[in-house]
C-alpha cells in the first residue's frame, strides 16, 4: 500500500476529474449516510458522538443578508459533496476494495477511525448550513448523485487535499461576504470551520509526505469558482435544486501540463462556444493573498469549440508555492481580488499545487 504521491502525480490527477473511473459505484446513488440530509434526533446524536462535538446550540441570528443566504447555499452544496466523498472512501477501505487495502492492520484501523471523525464533522457542517437556511425560510440544498475520479487511497487523499485547499480559500470569501452583509455571528462560526478544515488538510499533506502547513497566507478564492469545481463531481441532472443557487458556472479549465517549482509555459484546454478566442484572452493566477497575476494566453489549436492554449506560469518571480487557481479571463485587469477575477472569467478554475 502506497501512502504518498509525488507532486507531479498529484497535479496530473486534477485535469482528469471528469474522465477517470471510481473504484465502485458512487455511494450517493444509495443515499448519504446517517439519515442525511435530514437525520433523526437519534441519528444526529450518533453523528455528534462520532464528530467529538455538537452543533452550536446558541440562538440563530434574527436576520440575514442576501449575501449570507448565498453563502449558506454554497456551503451546504459543498458539504453534502464532501460527506458523499468521505463516506465512499471509508466504504472502500472497509470493504478492502483493490487500491484501498492496507498491509498494516494498525494503520488501517487508525486511518478508518480518523476518517470517520472527519466524515461526522462534515455531516455537522452540512446539517448546520441547511438548518440555517430553513430557519430563514429558505429551502435547504438537496444532495446530488456524485462521481469521484479516484482509483486508490493515494489518489483519494490527493483529491481530498486539492478540494480542501479550494474550500479553505472559498470560506475566506464567505467570511468577507458575511462581514459585508453584517452577518457577524455567522462570520465567527465559519471562521471556526476554517480552522477545522485546516487541521484535516495538515493530515492530508502529511500522508503525501509534505509539510503539514502549506503557506504563510493561504490562497484565497471566490464562491463561483467553488460552485463550478464541485459540479465536476456531480452526475448531471441529479442535483434537485442547484438552480436555486445564484452563482455562475464557468467552462471547465484543464491543466494539461502541471508545473514544477519553476517558471515555465503550461498547456491548458477549455471549451469556447462563444468564439471568445477571436479576441485576446489571458491566463490569470490567484496565489496566496497576493494580487492576481495576469499572463497573455496563446491559442495553440482549436477543434470546434475545444481550445488548446499556452501561458507562462511565472513561479520564480512570484514564489508561487502551494495552491494556485488558474482562470481564463476576458480582461487583463488589473484585478484587485479573486472576486474581480471571477467576474471576467471564461473558463476555470484550473487547480495547481506546487510544493
Automatic annotation (TrEMBL):
Residues 1-19 form the signal peptide. Pfam families: Ferritin_2. The lineage of its organism: Eukaryota, Fungi, Dikarya, Ascomycota, Pezizomycotina. This is Late sexual development protein. It comes from the Eukaryota. Keywords: Signal.
Amino acid at each position: 500500500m502506497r501512502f504518498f504521491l509525488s507532486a507531479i502525480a498529484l497535479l496530473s490527477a486534477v485535469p482528469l476529474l471528469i474522465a477517470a473511473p471510481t473504484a465502485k459505484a458512487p455511494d450517493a446513488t444509495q443515499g448519504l449516510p446517517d439519515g442525511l440530509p435530514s437525520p433523526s434526533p437519534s441519528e444526529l446524536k450518533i453523528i455528534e458522538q462520532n464528530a467529538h462535538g455538537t452543533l452550536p446550540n446558541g440562538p440563530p441570528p434574527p436576520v440575514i443578508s442576501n449575501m449570507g443566504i448565498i453563502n449558506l447555499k454554497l456551503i451546504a452544496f459543498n458539504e453534502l459533496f464532501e460527506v458523499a466523498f468521505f463516506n465512499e472512501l471509508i466504504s472502500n477501505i472497509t470493504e478492502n476494495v483493490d487500491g484501498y487495502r492496507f498491509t498494516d492492520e494498525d494503520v488501517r484501523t487508525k486511518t478508518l477511525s480518523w476518517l470517520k471523525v472527519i466524515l461526522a464533522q462534515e455531516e455537522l457542517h452540512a446539517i448546520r448550513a441547511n438548518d440555517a437556511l430553513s430557519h430563514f425560510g429558505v429551502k435547504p440544498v438537496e444532495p446530488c448523485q456524485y462521481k469521484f475520479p479516484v482509483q486508490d487511497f493515494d489518489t483519494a487523499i490527493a483529491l481530498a487535499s486539492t478540494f480542501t485547499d479550494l474550500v479553505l480559500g472559498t470560506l475566506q470569501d464567505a467570511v468577507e461576504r458575511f462581514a459585508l452583509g453584517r452577518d457577524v455571528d455567522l462570520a465567527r462560526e465559519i471562521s471556526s470551520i476554517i480552522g477545522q478544515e485546516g487541521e484535516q488538510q495538515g493530515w492530508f499533506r502529511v500522508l503525501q509526505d509534505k509539510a503539514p502547513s502549506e503557506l504563510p497566507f493561504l490562497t484565497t478564492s471566490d464562491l463561483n469558482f467553488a460552485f463550478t469545481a464541485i459540479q465536476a463531481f456531480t452526475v448531471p441532472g441529479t442535483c434537485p435544486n442547484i438552480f436555486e443557487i445564484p452563482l455562475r458556472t464557468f467552462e471547465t479549465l484543464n491543466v494539461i501540463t502541471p508545473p514544477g517549482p519553476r517558471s515555465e509555459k503550461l498547456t491548458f484546454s477549455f471549451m469556447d462556444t462563444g468564439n471568445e478566442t477571436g479576441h485576446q484572452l489571458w491566463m490569470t493566477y490567484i496565489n496566496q493573498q497576493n494580487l492576481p497575476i495576469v499572463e497573455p494566453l496563446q491559442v495553440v489549436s482549436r477543434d470546434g469549440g475545444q481550445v488548446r492554449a499556452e501561458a507562462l506560469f511565472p513561479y520564480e518571480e512570484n514564489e508561487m508555492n502551494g495552491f494556485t487557481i488558474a482562470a481564463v479571463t476576458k480582461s487583463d485587469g488589473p484585478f484587485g481580488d479573486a472576486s474581480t477575477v471571477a467576474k471576467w472569467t471564461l473558463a476555470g478554475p484550473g487547480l495547481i499545487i506546487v510544493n
